[in-house]
Specification:
Chain lengths: 296, 234
């Protein structure tokens, strides 16, 4: 029983939670520094996943190695999209940037559909066997995702707490006027924010694709959960976003466990509703989230 | 040539003007206080120096060079630092990180300046790892001033540094202003607690409706009955 719980519910929950965490941190950083909800974030994840596909199917690289060009290209794409669309709109109301990101997301999704079609694609064809340790079973890709997510998030944490630019990013998130008064180069901080958010979105997208199939709506389908995670952790708080992502991923998977009797507590079809329910509850009772972030 | 010269400036935030033909100067190492009734444009006058205002007439010069219309980060580079009245710290950053951000523009080793700030504000040293937002009002004000001092400015602009503080902290802040000035930093200060401020000021300006009304030494302004009644209250 315990093994079944671990193998089929808790571990998938942690895997999903790690992916949500990666996406949520990007969203929360963008909100903290740029003060708008980046609706195109899911589609940026999708783009990252498909960019990796080019190297996997085209050059025969393994998925982990293909991550590297995907991260670089998605980071560059994020900066380019900012220059093209969001930069001019920064002086106006934040809702305008939100609408623009809705449009940008649509563009990205459509581009993926035009290039790769609408049918699901797998990175690697064939069935993968899990690694077995006694009764404990785990898929290699799951180990890769959790460890990879830990490494990325650990690296980000170091950057935000040890690097001068990272601290400047936190300062700008706290008080943009005072940051300018202190001489912080706000343009550079903004660019760094897009690079990091784009890079992390690519990692999240590739991991999502690894754990299932690639399709144009890959990131769009998890956008709600990613935003719920960011709000749960307190918008603007990267550590909170990591925790929020993990919580939502685990709760989502555990909700389908047969807690009472033999039938799942929640039908798997309704899993997406878990994040939605958490989001609604948060917005009603505690919009600032666990760690008292800004109100979205 | 004065350290800072505000020469007949007219300007405001949007389309309307708040300051009208305002002139002031600060000499090297001086403490100059701006007093006046609410809405007199005292904080606005200071923001004009720091590039936070639209200036439509007149000029501002620092060390002889014109700085009118420059952006805040350019003005910081020239040796003027500004402590706003509110929202003057980074609340989620630690005290130490706040000071580090104050020194952001410095590429050299600024540990000497850091030590000087911790000497000026001993309570900050023991709380240096705590988030600045968790400190009391008086200590947060210390962080705000410390952040501004990290660049070793020649001129420090203080916007109502004792606003909202208990009398004990008020005295502390004025002592600190005195100590900072003793290290050679010129200070331009807006203060509502005019009596105490003028007592330590070299000179003072009385403003009303965005214009000059009075200028004299701190002592003279304190002694002036009319000024006391109209602007200094009880």
């Amino acid at each position: 029983m315990l093994m079944e719980f671990l193998n089929f519910y808790l571990i998938p929950g942690i895997v999903l939670g790690s992916i949500y965490a990666l996406g949520a941190v990007g969203v929360t950083l963008i909100y903290g520094v740029l003060r708008f909800a980046h609706i195109a974030h899911g589609d940026m994840m999708t783009t990252g996943a498909f960019l990796a596909l080019v190297f996997v199917h085209g050059l025969g690289w393994s998925v982990p190695v293909a991550l590297i060009p995907s991260i670089i290209l998605t980071a560059i794409l994020a900066v380019v999209l900012d220059r093209l669309f969001y930069r001019h709109l920064r002086k106006g109301a934040p809702i305008v940037m939100l609408m623009a990101s809705l449009g940008v997301g649509l563009m990205l999704r459509s581009a993926v559909q035009v290039i790769w079609g609408v049918d699901p694609i797998a990175y690697v064809s064939g069935i993968q066997r899990p690694v077995v340790y006694g009764e404990f079973r785990i898929f290699t890709r799951h180990i890769l995702i959790v460890v990879g997510a830990l490494v990325v998030m650990g690296g980000l944490h170091l950057f935000l707490t040890r690097a001068r630019l990272g601290k400047a990013m936190r300062a700008m998130s706290d008080n943009p006027t005072l940051a300018r008064l202190s001489g912080i180069d706000t343009d550079r901080v903004v660019m760094a924010t897009w690079v990091i958010a784009g890079g992390m979105a690519a990692v999240a997208g590739v991991f999502l694709g690894m754990d299932g199939h690639l399709h144009s709506m890959l990131g769009w389908h998890v956008l709600l959960a990613v935003f719920a995670a960011a709000i749960l952790g307190g918008v603007g708080n990267p550590l909170g976003a990591m925790l929020g992502g993990l919580i939502i991923g685990v709760v989502e998977e555990l909700a389908t466990y047969p807690w009472i009797g033999t039938a799942p507590l929640l039908e798997p079809t309704y899993k997406a509703g878990v994040a939605f329910a958490i989001l609604i509850a948060l917005l009603i009772w505690r919009p600032t989230g666990l760690f008292k972030g800004k109100v979205l | 040539m004065s350290l800072l010269e505000i020469d007949g400036i007219t300007g405001g935030y949007g389309d309307s003007d708040i300051l009208h033909d305002l002139s002031m100067r600060v000499e090297e190492g001086e403490v100059v206080v701006i007093v006046g009734p609410n809405g007199a444009g005292k904080s606005t006058a200071m923001k004009s120096v720091f590039g936070l205002l639209t200036i439509r007439g007149g000029a501002i010069r620092f060390k002889g060079e014109e700085i009118t219309g420059l952006k805040p980060d350019q003005i910081v580079r020239r040796g003027i630092c500004y402590v706003p009245q509110v929202e003057n710290v980074f609340p989620s950053l630690s005290v130490h990180e706040n000071l580090e951000m104050g020194a952001y523009l410095r590429r050299d080793d600024f540990s000497a300046s850091l030590d000087r700030v911790y000497d000026l504000f001993p309570p900050l040293k023991e709380k240096r790892r705590l988030p600045a937002g968790s400190l009391s009002g008086g200590q947060r004000q210390m962080v705000a001033m410390g952040r501004a001092l990290m660049l070793d400015p020649a001129l420090l602009l203080l916007d109502e540094p004792t606003a909202g503080l208990s009398p004990k902290f008020m005295d502390q802040i004025f002592d600190i202003v005195r100590s900072v000035n003793a290290q050679g930093v010129a200070i331009l200060m807006v203060e509502q607690n005019a009596k105490q401020a003028l007592a330590l000021a070299g000179r003072g300006y009385v403003l009303a409706t965005g214009r000059n009304r009075h200028e004299d030494t701190g002592a003279a302004l304190l002694a002036d009955r009319e000024v006391a009644e109209m602007f200094l209250g009880g």
